[in-house]
Structures are given as structure tokens and as C-alpha cells.
């Protein structure tokens, strides 16, 4: 399990496995967000199996499938709502953690400086620079 904390309350990870959910809970996370569409993964790690494992470990689980190259405002809004509704730290995952970083940055546009929203994920090798114009537009529009 490779957890990459962007902030004290939000981290991203590459694909998690069902048997890792107790360790996620032990690490202090309260909510897991799945940003991977079922169509790109094997059935054993499909969202419902992951939900069952997360809930068995006492975690809240949110399904917000983000298609690479086709992030929607609904994805951004769902991510923001899941983060806001969480009772503690959130761990979001996708194939590499990149999409989970992008929707986090877009969800926080206007609440943090754009350079920070791009720079925090960059520490883990995620290049959000191509999303700078979108993040700045969202910030100007009030997020």
C-alpha cells in the first residue's frame, strides 16, 4: 500500500486491494474514495468488492469513477462532497493516484492557491500543470 498524503486530511494511492482496508483504517483514514471505473479493472477489485471490504473495516466508501482524459464537473463535485462529508482523513485511489489528485485540486480551486494545488501532487510525481487553466477558471468562478 502506497499512501501519498497531499494534506493532513487527504491522501491518494494507486489501486488498493480489499485486504488492505483494515490497514487503511488503522492508518487513521475514515473514508475511502474509489476513482476507478469498474470497466478498467478485474472483477475482484470492482467497486462493490472494495466497498464491502472497506465497510467491514469500519470505513465509509464513496464511488466516484473518473475516466482518464474525461473528468467531468460531476466528478469534481462528487469528490468535493465526499471530502466535505468525511468524518476524518480521506484516502482516494485510482490506477496511480493521478486522477484522485486532479479531482482534489479542482475541488479545492479557489480555496487554496493554484500553485499549491499543483505543487502538492507534484511532490509525488503527478503533473497537474496541464490542468492549471481549468483550476484557475474554477477559482475565478468560485470553485
TrEMBL record:
InterPro entries: BLH_phosphatase-like (IPR005939), Prot-tyrosine_phosphatase-like (IPR029021). GO terms for molecular function: hydrolase activity. Residues 2-110 form the Beta-lactamase hydrolase-like protein phosphatase-like domain. NCBIfam families: TIGR01244 family sulfur transferase (TIGR01244). This is TIGR01244 family protein. It comes from Roseicitreum antarcticum.
Amino acid at each position: 500500500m502506497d499512501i501519498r498524503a497531499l494534506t493532513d486530511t487527504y491522501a491518494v494511492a494507486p489501486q488498493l486491494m480489499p485486504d488492505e482496508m483494515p490497514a487503511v483504517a488503522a492508518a487513521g483514514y475514515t473514508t475511502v474514495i474509489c476513482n476507478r471505473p469498474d470497466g478498467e479493472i478485474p472483477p475482484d477489485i470492482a467497486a462493490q468488492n472494495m466497498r464491502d471490504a472497506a465497510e467491514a473495516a469500519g470505513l465509509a466508501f464513496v464511488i466516484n469513477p473518473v475516466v482518464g482524459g474525461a473528468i467531468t464537473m460531476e466528478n469534481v463535485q462528487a469528490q468535493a462532497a465526499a471530502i466535505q462529508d468525511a468524518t476524518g482523513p480521506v484516502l482516494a485511489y485510482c490506477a496511480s493516484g493521478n486522477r484522485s489528485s486532479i479531482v482534489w485540486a479542482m475541488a479545492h480551486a479557489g480555496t487554496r492557491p493554484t500553485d499549491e494545488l499543483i505543487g502538492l501532487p507534484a511532490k509525488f510525481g503527478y503533473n497537474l500543470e496541464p490542468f492549471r487553466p481549468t483550476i484557475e477558471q474554477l477559482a475565478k468562478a468560485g470553485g
